[in-house]
Amino acid sequence: MTNCKVLDRYLNIPQGQIFARQWEPNSQDRLPPIVLFHDSLGCVELWRNFPAELSTATGRKVVAYDRLGFGRSDARVDGPELDFIADEAKSYFPAVREQLGFKRFIAFGHSVGGGMAVNCAAEFVDDCEALITESAQVFPEDRTLQSIAAAKEQFKDMRQVERLKKYHGEKARWVLDAWTDTWLHPGFAAWTLEPVLPRVACPVLAIHGIHDEYGSTRHPEMITELSSGDSQCEIIADTYHVPHRECAEVIVKTVSEFIASLKAEPENQEHFSTLVAANL
Known about the structure:
39% of the residues lie in helices and 19% in strands. By secondary structure, the chain is an alpha/beta fold. The radius of gyration is 18 Å and the shape is globular.
């Protein structure tokens, strides 16, 4: 059972509006929030009950937002550039932090959102308390590209596109093309997180389903091997590409225990330290 408050708002950026949702626990602790980065077909709504369960279990605020072109955020007229994974940390996430009023954070990314979380952890190394990846890719593996090519064929069936419209409206076709056309683009073959991961200094938890059809266990192994901080790799049995939906209780427990092992610091540490000093 979850017990948290849900707040929705729109954030203004030069390219349009971004939809964000926050799940706030009853706890008054000012701990850094957990920020969720969704996958290639995802959005806030498709996280379903997971954010509320995670907020309740950890006692932390959880933040999720629809990337531009997805969910309730404004549409995009252009397709994503080939560096779109790194660009999320430079062009969009800073506005999310500023307008939602947090500095320190825990980054949690699913699938391609895992790559974005890695880049955010590397870009804001002093402010990222921890990095959690789930089903993330480090490079365009043959298995990944074959599954995306198969999905591209499946989505020629308009009934599949109609299912996505429930979450993305008329942007559904753009969402599909942004995913498949970018990953299958010849120029994307050289993309990799290898040069980024050594810049990640915070503790890392890399989660992966043993049967993930979009990537082998080589990906979480590389994330833990190449990152600079303490790291752990969790391979989940009998699980495919969406562990937080396939075995939500296991993922909430795994993530909660990992976060509990961190040294807790209030979000506004400087303000907190000032208050403590004033009362000594």
